[in-house]
Amino acid sequence: MTTTRRHALLLGAALSVSLFATACGTSGDTGSGTAAATRSASADDLQAALNAGGSITVWAWEPTLKKVVADFQTKYPKVKVNLVNAGTGNDQYTALQNAVKAGSGLPDVAQIEYYALPQFALGKAVTDLTAFGADKLDGTFTPGPWNSVHSGSGIYGLPMDSGPMALFYNKDVFDKHKIEVPKTWEEYIAAAKKLHEADPKAYIANDVGDAGFTTSMIWQAGGKPYKVDGTKVGVDFGDAGTQKYTAAWQQLVSGKLVAPIASWSDAWYKGLGDGTIATLVIGAWMPANLETGVKAGAGKWRVAPMPQWESGGKATSENGGSSLAIPEGAANKQLAYAFLKFANVDEGVRTRVDGGAFPATTAQLNSPEFKDKKFPYFGDQQVNQVLAESASQVVSGWSYLPYQVYANSVFNDTVGKAYISGTTLQDGLKAWQDASVKYGQEQGFTMQ
Amino acid sequence: MAVFALVFLAPIAYSVYLSLFRTQLIGGTTFVGADNYVKALGDPQFWSAFGRVALFLVVQVPIMLFLALLVALAIDSGRLYGASFFRISVFLPYAVPAVVAALMWGFMYGTRFGLIGNLNDLLGVSLPDPLSSDLILASIGNIVTWEFVGYNMLILYSALRVVNPSLYEAAEMDGAGQLRIVWAIKLPALRGALLIATIFSIIGSFQLFNEPAILRDLAPNAITTYFTPNYYAYSLSFRGQQFNYSATVAIVMGVITMVIAYVVQLRGMRKGA
Hints:
heterodimer, A: D-Maltodextrin-Binding Protein, domain 2, five-stranded mixed β-sheet, B: two-stranded antiparallel ribbon, 2 strands, 74% helix, TAT_signal (chain A), Bact_solute-bd_prot1 (chain A), Extracellular solute-binding protein (chain A), transport (chain A), signal (chain A)
């Protein structure tokens, strides 16, 4: 959810391209790509496709792609790319599902968030990219995102960006009240209490119940509530990792130590700027959002490693991020994959990093130029050092549900109750689990 | 007739067709007969949504119609200074698109930076949060009332305008006071218009969607995905890909609405006769 809004905000109205572009794009194609899926495509094939030219349609809302598309067309003048913003997150998924169902109007490339990709992979709505040699890209991407685009033996997308989590904090507020930057969650809770006592208007964080945040926190704590093996699915929020999270976070919720402000709301931006929301535990894509959305916070914010469950620990998790995938039935798969590679592996990555995106490629993450970049907004801190370190410490073995999009949509119906009534987070998660299991059964999954 | 079939009957027929099937992520589409209907009739989420709009109906609609009646009578009395200005300002909210109205009220309801927040700061009080789960329905009722008082007022006012003025003169000659005139002439003349306004309002209440959909961003925990029957159908179809069940919920709700509207109409006409 978080990424959805993030992109929406970054984007504004900038990318609104009329749907006519889609129609024009697909009608102009010659059916050169359909046969490609059946055989393995080599680099030569891709080059040949690029030389032959053609046109592809890309559905994405990621703002930095605009520049990538322009560069791509300059490099390969025979290729025409129609970049269409078919909505952000859920809206686009709905449009994509409908196009898949109808079997027409499909884009050649679609942006799909990691949490939503399994759903499309399962429904055979996206192409297995191993046929194009995506399996040879091992080591190109950081483990978290790379793991996220795998489903069974297939690879269903190339990682575009990633969101290893870190602690963003307002240094002014911490200095003013002489609070140490928390290194563990225990210290974080203590800091929350101290801050709110010192200034009743200030809160350590905002939280009204956010599925993406909650699952990321459980992920870091070592919880693995979702067990997915093909169509066999298990949901269990009773594990030790989950309980570690609920026990700690319940203290903040019950103690009214988190501000009841929804993320991405006007009040949220205001709070981040005026010091009433002192920290954000969020994905590494946040800096660009702070810079553009919270001008009042310039110079005040810093980035620290994500607080740990054990003192001295080094565990983080991912929060958001998306991949580019090729819908099954896309008209020009060869060309589509060539674009994917350009945007997510080759030159395009650099372009997007310069535009403020947080890459998923190890080469960029380890390059000195990236790591040493100083951010004036963060008081010249070399923010990427912290974020890149977090990217290498993501706890492995996490998986989302093959219908996470639906599950997240009913999060506030269930866990949300813990924020407005006497229900505990643990009870709320149990209710969420029940709702997820019920949906799984209705959809024909074997629930364990 | 062809147009009628295409734009009116076809969508209904298609919904009914959809409601007889079930599409699963695993297993595809199967014909399930009336299964979806059985499920809807026993679905606690559907009935809680229905209960919510029913409560909304019995509380908000009388308040709104009473206010509309008062305003219409006041304007019609001819004793109001600046009546036409008053009429247009009461009607104006109806011209504001419902989405914009909901957004606007959403800003005002904010306890931090909204009007409520400002009042709290200014007066040093702590007003209850209109977006809390206890008050959210009342807050939505307030928005809807604001939007539709003017519209209903116009229906009632136009009915009053067609009353023959000689009746009033005759009444005055017989020594009837204003209240007496309202009671004996104006209200009976309004019966038909009131009935229409009531039926519109019943349908409107059951179709409640815009306001909760917009306010959900501000109060995600207070407004559930099954807050109203319409919103439930929307969530089912666009969040859960359960198009078949969503169509079923829509049809069940449509039938209930029709039945209630019809019963109200029958009763209203019998009284009138």
